[in-house]
Amino acid sequence: MDIIDLGCGAGNYSKYFLNFEPHSLTLIDASKNILSKAKEKLQAHSSSTQLSFKQVVLPDMPYDDNSFDAAMINLVSSM
Fold first, then answer.
1. Engineered SS bond to 22: which of 1, 39, 57, 74, CB 3.0-4.6 Å?
2. Which residue blocks in the chain are alpha helix, DSSP H?
């Protein structure tokens, strides 16, 4: 399974997804600083999951439709 976490923040939900051992887990967030915190948190977790971190400002999506099996978006707001 390939999962994307949109607006991942510090990676709390993404860390939970690692329990299901997905093939890949992609985290995107607008903040470079918060994304680095998520990267630090998840890379400390031992897993065979392929992790990817990308700084993206929604609604821009650098992925084709249907690239993921599941998506998570939580507490994302627009200004």
1. 1
2. 12-17, 32-43
> Long-range contacts: 32-41, Cβ < 8 Å, 24+?
34/9, 34/10, 35/8, 37/10, 37/11, 38/8, 38/9, 38/10, 38/11, 38/14, 39/11, 41/10, 41/11, 41/12, 41/15
> Encoding tokens for residue 37?
């915190």
User: pLDDT confidence of 45, banded at 50, 70, 90?
Assistant: confident
The answer, yes or no, to whether residue 77 has pLDDT greater than 90, is no
pTM, 2 dp = 0.87
